[in-house]
Amino acid sequence: MTGDRRLKLGGFAVVLVIALALPFLFGAYQVGQFTLVLCYAIAVLGLNLLVGYGGLISLGHGAFFALGAYTSAILIDKADVAPLATVPVAAAVCFAAGLLLGLPALRIRGLYLALVTLAVAIAVPQLIKRFDALTGGTQGLNVPRPTTPSWVPLADDQFLYFLTLAFAIVMFVLAANLVRGRIGRALAAMRESEAAAKATGVNLARLKTGAFAVSALYAGVGGSLYVFSIGFVAPESFTLTISFAFLAAVVVGGLGTIGGAIFGALFIEFVPVYASDVNEALAGVIYGAVLIAFMFALRDGVMGLLRQIAQALTTKEGRDERETAVRLAGGDRRRGAAPSGGMRA
Amino acid sequence: MERLIQTLVDGVATGSLYGALALAVVLIFRTSGIVNFAQGEMAMFSTFAAWGLLEAGLPVGLAILATLGLSLLGGMVIERVLMRPFEGGDHLTLAIVTLGLFILVNSGAGWIWGFENRSFPSIFPDDTIGVGGVDVPLESVGIVVLLLAVVGVLYLFFQRTKLGLALRAVSVNPESSRLSGISVGRTLMVGWGIAALVGALAGALIAPRLFLDVNFMGGVLIYSFAAATLGGFDSPLGAIVGGWIIGVTEDLATTYVDFIGSDLKILVPLVIILVVLLVRPAGLFGTREVTRV
What we know:
- The complex is a heterodimer.
- By secondary structure, chain A is an all-alpha fold.
- Chain A contains 15 helices and 2 strands.
- Chain A has a domain at 32-240.
- Chain A has helices at 2-25, 28-53, 61-79, 83-105, 110-130, 132-135, 156-180, 182-192, 194-199, 204-230, 240-253, 260-278, 282-297, 301-317, 322-344, and strands at 141-142, 232-233.
- A two-stranded antiparallel sheet of chain A has the order 1-2.
- Residues 331-345 of chain A have low confidence and may be disordered.
- Chain B contains 11 helices and 2 strands.
- Chain B has a two-stranded antiparallel sheet with strand order 1-2.
- In chain B, helix 3 (60-83) runs antiparallel to helix 8 and helix 5 (138-160) crosses helix 6 (162-172).
- The radius of gyration of chain B is 19 Å and the shape is globular.
- The termini of chain B are far apart.
């Protein structure tokens, strides 16, 4: 595992250096886009905990993203709460909502979670419009963004970016720890075989509901930070499209990976921007095609691809460390065989 | 009283349409264990194809008939090309693939036909018949009768034909079916074709009551899922009865509960799904799932 672990830490360091350098290399507009990427990445990571690690599917993470966003927006707009203080509130509200919705939906089969969350995702814009006294209805709410403290030598867009980055790093580290420990192993066991997991003492109902609630919490934090960077919420931002985009991001990044969320978030932020130049419908066509094509040929997503490349490189360089090379190649074979074997089973 | 009867009749007619799409969902679920999230969008695509034929000058009945044939073929092609490589795969993979199909079909239709609202003519005359002092729209009666006819034909098909028997066999046990000489893949292909056809019929009957646009089946799909959940996901009869209950509940709720109105009626199927899952997870007519370890 030491070789694998070294790869992961190396990858983390590279991403961190790039992330720290970005706001000094691009203009204000692009920095704003990267801030959004970070918000999406947190939500996508949460969805991946559920889908990739737990094997459960949610089509309604846009709804939790919206719930987090509106919790922050309403608290800031109606109650004059300091922006940063609304993030934990949004997280708690989404966690509770996840528990409530997960209890009935997860009792039977994971599949029903998909149905219930799809219904919720479709209902969200309607609900927002119905309670317009609170949410501002179709008009939406304008929310003041967090102000840059005077002692910080950064432009507003750079400050917002680093603020979001700080949250993102905390959420990513927490998730990485979560999946490495007892809970991560329980999730993996459940994904592979519910019966076997149950037999080894995993409390399925509690694990599923907990995983769903935590994953909703992540989406809520992402949504809350999204309000800071956009400064505006409206029902049109939270249609079914965003829930589908999150799922596409999970698949593109790689099911059951931590770092994949970043690539997925980059994908869903930048693909629609360029695709809309060609045709309004192109982004959707790409999302749909990508979901099917990745399931067909690239189940482990971008992360899987990167892992393969990194392993090929390290085996070539570390030829003297024969042991490591052999172990990595063995690990590679196992990884390659698992999906196709699972598909035929 | 008159208002109540009219609401009930309307509810049953709307519910028949939810039931029709639910039937399509159940047909695929029974034979292949897949919940086809794209069922509604496939129906939407078919309805747009019918609209295209109308624009080309075909009379409405003929346009719909031609579309039903095309949908049968289309459903078979989708099974063969997209679903076959994943046959017997895990739930997550299958769900993601049908979701991909959902988005692909939705955006593809938007690309081809645009995102505007269009109106779609009804095949039934715009007239009412008086039953006991209540004016019942002929369209509502027509929809219910047509749906019952479809169910009757499907029943005969499943019970009295060799292909229907093969479909039932595959739904019970694909392995044994294959051993007794049934081509499972080809049978599933037929199942998808029939489901697409039933869905297309539902789409063509729903479109006149709403506007035809690329998202018009999104809401309907949720009602159909509620109908299928209520009726039991593996029961065709349950899909129809579930559809009726959902349709009537929806119409009663929007007419008599002010809080719900027309804005929040999307909550009706959601609440019904949640209540069914809490109280009777197998639905009214479904079989309880038993897992062999």
